[in-house]
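User:
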Amino acid sequence: SSATGALRESLLNGSAEHEELPDLHDAARDMHDAASTQAQDDRTPAAGPRWRTGPGVQRALERSHSRVDIAPENQRGTGGEYGRLERLDMDPINHPFRVDAQRKPFDVLNTHQQVVITSKESYAWILTVIIGVVVALVARFVQMCIAVLCELRNSNVQTLIEESIPHASNVAGSASSALGTTPTWLRIVTFTKPLLFFVGWNLSFVLAGGILTSVFEPHTAADGIAEIKAFINGTHVKHFLRLRTIVAKVVGTILAAAGGLASGSEGPLIHIGAGVGSGVTRGDKMRNFLIEFSPAILGLFHNDRDRREFVSAGAAAGMAAAFGSPVGGVLWVLEETSSAWTPGLIWRMFTAALISSVTLAFLRAGIYSGDISVSGLLSFGNIRASDAFSLAASSVASPIYWWEIFLFAAVGAAGGMLGAVFNKGVNLLASVRPRWVVFRVLEVALVSLLTSASLFALVFSSDSCTSNGLWTCRDSSNWGEWCSGPHDLNTCMGPVSSCANATAWMCHGGRSSGRSCRDSDCEPLGGTCIPLSLPQRNKGVQMLCPEGQYHELATLLWGHHEDSIVRILTQAWPSSPFSTASLLQAAGLTLLLMILTFGIHIPTGIFMPLVFVGSCLGRVAGEFFKQNVDSRIFPGGYALAGAAALLGGVQRGTISLVLILVEGTSNVHSLLPVVTAICVSNFVGGLIGGKEGIYDILMRRKKLRWLEHEPSSLMGVCFAGDVMTRPVVTLRAVEKISTIVHVLRNTPHHGFPVVSLSESDLGQVLEQVNEEADEDLIASPVAARKANGCEGGAG
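Assistant: Predicted structure:
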């Protein structure tokens, strides 16, 4: 197998230095053409296997979700939408032509004539650092584009709503009465212009992303994690890591998120990171556009074994950039996608993940006044103390009582059940998704219309306005102290004092310039107190609510989910950020839209929506326990447990999810509740929905092949002779090119025993092997029963 792979690479790369090199190139081209068209060839290969698998075993294998290929004759060797599948060549290639090429000294850079380092290991670490930096830059670009587009949409909707308020006043007397007494259908009719703009905006972005995915790059659909898992486990999935696919993935992710779909950018970012990891080894193919490097530098990594390691490093970097969790990102790749790893691979993945997190933290430092502790796109909040002037209080400041473990277990059980329902819903809809391009685009448009209409209707049917908690006193002796709102006449002290919507007050000018008005005499010393406010996105979405208040459902469904998640997890004072009704409505609608959305042909992710839904439901459970069990309970801890439970119920992950949530919150204090929720959700989800997680389900649906960690119990009743290809096709240690080309053209598999025997000895061995295989087939207890036989094989 390794010898054949080496020869195949030497033929395709043209690295062999041989007097018959032109003939070798022709042979390689013929082999490539034959391989690309064989999947559509209806003729039976001369040395192909005979498929006679009994219906009983077929049903049993389907019930056990075994990955044994039991496809009929005309579908043998295909991988669903990815066509014919082959395994990656994991063995090191050490044929003489490659060894001779590596012995030659590297060329120098053509631009500066500087000698470069010649160690392959040194280049591997340099490329690893480049992967981390590039992934962080792409992640920051995606986040900025989504934030700008969402802010632009919401600001235009707000403007149109304010323009429609006079008309609402004529209908219902005043804006407040229109919001409080007008039926839902009349409110929607009244605000027709904002509705049409909201639906049209979302539809235009989503439709553009759907056309980009369905027509030009079908491999960018969903989040791509199923394909990454198949690739890292040794299956060569075509085209999903090429540059054009990754660029389309970036654009499609931005369009889907800006279009208001129930999806996130964190999942696609893992695919993007894997593509960056694969692309850095092919930079020499772009030397016509960039600085011309010697092909020998990156040519060292033109093999499946090294590319698999870089893809793993890129996936870990993408996960770390999404959650600011380098250790969790590495563990997630090892737990969810990889079936084999080495200490060197772990170090490489950790380096890429750490560089990605640090780079992204520096890129986002300006948002948090220079603070680099927030390093992920989805931050769970890490506020560690509460005082009279803080918006939030963290679960770090609240104790966890021993009897709460049972409550966290109940939250985990609920998350496991919901996760099983989500997986079953996605699996059911996957079987009825359209296959034609036109219908795929139409499906994307219909999902966008349904999503926009339901979000708009739910928001305008609610009157949930809540103070944003940013009111402070002005013109008073306690200038800057927190107050409850404009109607608070008792907190602010002074004859002309008032409660204003400002986070804090700073002295501008005079001898106290730059100091807090609270701590200095500003105006008597020639200064002026000016209000300081948080960015508008941190105040929530106002909609029809008065100044200083935010609309709960609009903030949850239209605003930045990251900000809402932070409030749900951390805020306990002065009041709960969202009512129980708003949390239940937002979580229920988002979960239904997620099931409908995840699987359409546009880049979508489920990490952030799952965290959002889980934290909403967990917060509801925490508020219920606080009112009915013990008032000392902190509801934000249950929100974190709910997010962990739903993630575990859908993905069936364990250790990696624990590390991601702990690192994302900087909160080891909640380790035990998170572990409890995830373990219980995995157990309950396995009882209800089987052991498969969402990515295993998608791999089975897409017919992607991989080996499970534990073999199926059915493998104990089958012998090697039951599934082997007969007659056995072998290659000698020294073989003719024509023989190799003939074998590759006329066999459905590409792994062949390499033997070093004489013709007579080889004939005797093969005859004995085939006879023993036939005897095993006859003696097999499964094959003895015609209805339950294990006959035939994949070779």
